[in-house]
Design goal:
single chain; mainly alpha; two-stranded antiparallel sheet; 15 helices; 2% strand
Length: 384
């Protein structure tokens, strides 16, 4: 009888989590569209309240249904308090919400999470595309500076956001399939990547999709290479890459030919990142940095945005938060190697690579891989 009650309690907790996860995905996705431009800034407030509701219900699931020991609950609360402080300083709540969903994913099947993510985000992409075609939401169209290239967002706040969504969707699909695809399937996804590049002209996201497709095609060789490098080697690569991105940004010199060429390839990400180092000090617990992106609902504003998730973490959320973020990536790699789930290790490497050029690490409608920190991971298909 007690076992049956415990099972029902687990099922209820899982159902509550998946409901909140779906709600948050929808809200987080809509916040990155041109809906607020169509309906007014009040829409942002409504979406924020729904995000807070979903996060609060997940917190209730953690306390009521997960049967954690008192010391574990205390540690969870300490982590939440730390993130609340730094998020309040930065005026950005996404890391706090992501943290609650990471903790709430305890004992949830990660493949179930991935399948729900793919279903919800793909449905939202198609709905927003239809709304943009019908004129219900604006289609944010831009010009590539100096190239005369038309870029369309198809209802997303920016064309780069559309390309990033497609990359993360492909990555989630690869995790579900453990990177096992036929040549025909890889070819079909390559056509999607080409189409998205033609629409958005997002070069860096196109490169990420290309790397993902190459990984699918040469799965056996790349899995063996990752296995050979091991946990310590891959964790060291991620740390060195993050440090390199921060140092390149900090020491950026617009008059140096090498830096100027690299910055042009990165669409001026080094320039805007370097500006924040010049204007603001580095804090332990972060600070508010005013930014204007191309998808600003007020229409045209003077552009200033930090795309690098590493620079954002350091300058907006502080030194301790940056170490916490890198620690999460390292722990994901540790879990992946522990059960030989090398697909997750490759996903972490690709996400770490993308973090230098996009800021979506803490946005759940993009990056769902962080929920693997405490979720139940699938058994490895590589038994060697």
């Amino acid at each position: 009888m007690l076992e049956k009650l415990a099972l029902n309690k687990n099922n209820l907790g899982n159902q509550l989590y998946m409901f909140c996860f779906s709600l948050y995905l929808i809200v987080n996705f809509m916040a990155g569209t041109t809906l607020s431009r169509a309906l007014g800034l009040g829409t942002i407030v409504i979406l924020l309240r729904l995000s807070q509701l979903a996060a609060f219900l997940v917190f209730c699931k953690i306390i009521i249904f997960d049967r954690h020991k008192f010391n574990t609950i205390l540690a969870i609360l300490v982590g939440a308090c730390f993130l609340f402080i730094v998020c309040k300083q930065a005026h950005e709540l996404d890391p706090l919400f992501m943290y609650l969903f990471i903790v709430g994913a305890y004992r949830i099947d990660f493949k179930q999470i991935l399948n729900k993510y793919i279903l919800v985000v793909l449905s939202m992409l198609l709905l927003v595309y239809a709304a943009a075609v019908l004129g219900l939401v604006p289609n944010n169209i831009m010009w590539r500076e100096g190239a005369g290239v038309v870029r369309a967002g198809l209802g997303l706040a920016t064309p780069s956001d559309l390309a990033a969504h497609v990359f993360y969707l492909m990555l989630a699909f690869a995790l579900v399939r453990d990177f096992i695809f036929s040549r025909q399937e890889i070819g079909f996804m390559a056509l999607i990547a080409v189409l998205i590049f033609a629409i958005t002209n997002s070069r860096l996201d196109a490169l990420l999709m290309l790397l993902l497709l190459v990984t699918m095609y040469f799965r056996g060789y790349i899995f063996k290479a990752v296995k050979y490098i091991g946990f310590k080697g891959t964790a060291l690569l991620v740390a060195l890459y993050a440090l390199s991105n921060l140092l390149l940004t900090y020491f950026f010199d617009p008059y140096d030919p090498f830096f100027a060429q690299l910055d042009a390839l990165l669409s001026r990400r080094l320039l805007f990142g370097n500006m924040v180092f010049e204007k603001y000090p580095i804090h332990l617990f972060g600070q508010y940095i005013y930014q204007n992106g191309n998808g600003d609902p007020r229409g045209f504003v003077v552009y200033y945005f930090i795309d690098s998730a590493y620079v954002q973490a350091l300058m907006m959320f502080g030194v301790i938060f940056l170490l916490f973020m890198l620690g999460l990536l390292a722990y994901l790699l540790y879990r992946a190697f522990k059960i030989r789930y090398y697909g997750l290790a490759i996903a972490v490497l690709l996400i770490a690579l993308s973090m230098a050029v996009n800021h979506h690490f803490w946005h759940m409608s993009y990056n769902v891989s962080l929920l693997a920190v405490l979720a139940v991971l699938p058994p490895s298909l590589d038994t060697e």
